[in-house]
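User: Can you write out an input/output pair for a complex, sequences first and structure second?

Assistant: Here is one pair. Inputs:
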Amino acid sequence: MGTIMICQVCESRPATIHITEIVNDQKKVLDLCEECAQEKGLAHGSANFPSLLKDLVGERPPVSAKKCPECGITFDEFRAKGRFGCPKDYEVFAEDLAPLLEKIHNAKQHVGRVPAGRAPDAGRDERLRRLRRDLARAVAEEQYEEAARIRDEIRQTEEALRGVV
Amino acid sequence: MELTDFLTPGGEWLRGDGRDADVVMSSRVRLARNLAGFPFATRASDEQRSEILGKMRTASETLPLGPRRYFVDLTPPGSRRESKELELDRTLLHERHLISTELEKGKGPRGVAFGSDERVSVMVNEEDHLRIQAIRSGFALDEALADARALDVALEGAVRYAVSPTYGYLTACPTNVGTGLRASVMLHLPALVHAQEMNRVFQAASRTGLAVRGFYGEGTKAMGDFYQISNQVTLGQSEEEILRKLSRMLPTFLEYERKVREHLVATYRVKVEDKVFRALAVLRAARTVSTDEAMELLSAVRLGVVTGLLTGVDLARLHELFVLVHPAHLRRQAGRALDTAVERDTARATLLRQRLSA
């Protein structure tokens, strides 16, 4: 490292924290000083990357160039029409869809009925494992609001599992 | 098929009974479903849509649709004369709330299955491959959900749904994903409209995450002071939870309408009576009546009946008129095209005179 990097936010202090984020195959590097990183919440690992990037770079994160291999729709096409092309799109565009679902439904996990014999799959077990791990971390970090939210989600997921007939 | 049996609406939801029927005309539940292995209807080819329609035609033969089952293929045929007939059928079904505006106006192979008591229907190739719908008279969301679910369970044995463990039932539009459930109640709010209180209803609804729509659902205007109130969130809440939330909010709207009705009758009794009896007099005597005027006058008469100011008018017969005054029903009844507005308005006035004569 021959040159001294300057923080991209305050543009005065030397950047000591370097974060590389890959968004849709595009590499973005953030160079921040300790204070600015704190302010952005990066020290707690709770940063919202797309909006952070937007703040810093002043542009919206690049839209996924992904195309559904089954129906051929792109996320831009979906955005223009408001309709997906096929069921697989939910999987292909999961990442881009998450904030949208959060906005519409304030949720990201189905908890209602599912067809008989179709529910208890590996995906759900994996999600429960992940949620429990997140819960332990949140408790350890004394993030109690977050912990409460995760607890709710675990309860909902388990209830959905039981609701299956 | 000939929909000649459909001159008189036999829809259970028009009976005017059930809980809170003074304000709640009907309760409706719809479930959006899609078949795995096909593109969504809007992106499917005509061949694929035909295949889905065919599957549904077969499946409908064993579905719990009601006493008599109907399956209407709404695919536009080749000849123009035929397609005119079909257009009338489509509008007729739409006027009866058996199909949505989107299915009526849509393109390509599509259809609907329903029972003769018009309590349940399954639209095929609307925005989603399947839209299961159940309507009941009065406030009866639980019963409507039970009806829709019975169809859902039966269909689930016949076709493979597109489902994800994370997102539940996958739908063409992410606003329906999860349960695919839209629960709505059709409210008759003449007092709130008259007192210009509807803005507060809209505000209260949007604050609590509910949508307010017109007589024929999404994107339609309010007619006859009817408004549909429905849930918006479909993901992250179970079907029962969605119904519970809507039911918890509902008394607020009902009590509000009832209070204003009571106030109007207590304070301006003669004026309200005058409005009701004038409406009835016009309906019994006029020689031409437009759709909007008919809906408005029928609304005033309904207000008279449910507040007890007017006796001798049967609520179920009155409700039928809210459907019969629309153009396709008039055409079917007249047996001719009724191409001009004057012809239609005249036919409408004749019908109203006959049906409401003292």
